[in-house]
Amino acid sequence: MRPHSHHLAPALALALTAVWSLSALFPSAAQAAIDGVSTGGCEVLASGQLRSNDYLHSFQGECRSGLAEGRGKATWKLRHAPDAPPVVWEGRFSQGIFLAERQTVGARRVDNTRVLLDQGRLDGPGNASAGRLWVESRIDGKLPASVCQPLSLQVSTSGSLADDALAKAWMDAAYARWQSTCSDAGAAALKGRSLRVQLHEGGSWSPDAYGNIPAGTAQALRHWGSTSGPQGDWQSYTNRAAQKVADAQRAKQETDEARANEARIRAFARKHGATRYVELAELDRNPFRFGGDVLLIAVRLAEARTPVEAYVTPARAARTEWTRVILRGPIADWDAQPRIVAVRVKGRSTDPYTRDMLLLEMVDSQRCSQPDCEDYLYMPGRRWLRDESFNARLERVDAQPLRTAGLR
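Given the sequence above, the corresponding structure tokens read:
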């Protein structure tokens, strides 16, 4: 896969990568440059090993804006072993980066270690317009960066990635394209590990000044040998675009449900002429301030004393919480599910066994279908009915106001 590989020394010494400057525009000037000192200012991205004082380096070829561009030949000779085979990179260069494979049409620098090798057009799945495939790779020792030694695949896509199936189809296409290019070489490179694929919406993304490639809109891992599809082969899959759509749909559903709750409890209040929603703690504190008004409360059966009398607790309180509230009315068919109840205050009990407990008379009740009566009390804006702002809104909307007491 690498042109002129017979010129490359076999050792793979990993070193920090750097940019070295060489004479570029005129071959004679490069040859005259003693010890490879730059005289023309043309740069080629190479490893720290090749830049060391052990090597004499030269470059012949085209240059643009101080970087090797187009056809060229970079040569490194051992200073103290002039008869040793030189390291030669001869062929195409892009922005100072040697393009080792014919499939690579360009390159971008990520940092002093890594590059992005442009694999050109990537056909989009289905009806999607074409995107672009980039292979992140590293320059190692005496070898240039190679498509078949990938760190990741980066894909510039077209259109939205909000559909998970479409996003995974893009990943399949990118992986299949890379796999067809590298085959056995890719198998050796990825042995024992996975390849990360990142999808970017559009082509405006780029590495930052610190060499960080931005997180893709969607990304996942695939082990070597996994065929292109089924899409279940993708692991650690995330998709911010799809998640955003799901969050919006969930928020809309919650809002619709909360509006239905609001309409439901307003209709119940209107049916019985209820003017307020009150919490038991506030009622127990001073029941006489509400006079003969019909009130709404949300309660749970704590203990039935008779078929028409029971101790009740707040619907949203802990199950072990006890109150001094007695509700009188038909409660024989009540179960553990909480209820919305329309009541009138009857004062305090004078019975010796329940003396001073709050007495409430039931007008009507409605069994809640959700725990803690979410289907009645949970309002738009992720707020509970006991919240003052929502009850103020109910007052403005309703011809017959529904007010709340006991607000916190």
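The mean pLDDT is 83. Try to locate this feature in the token string yourself.
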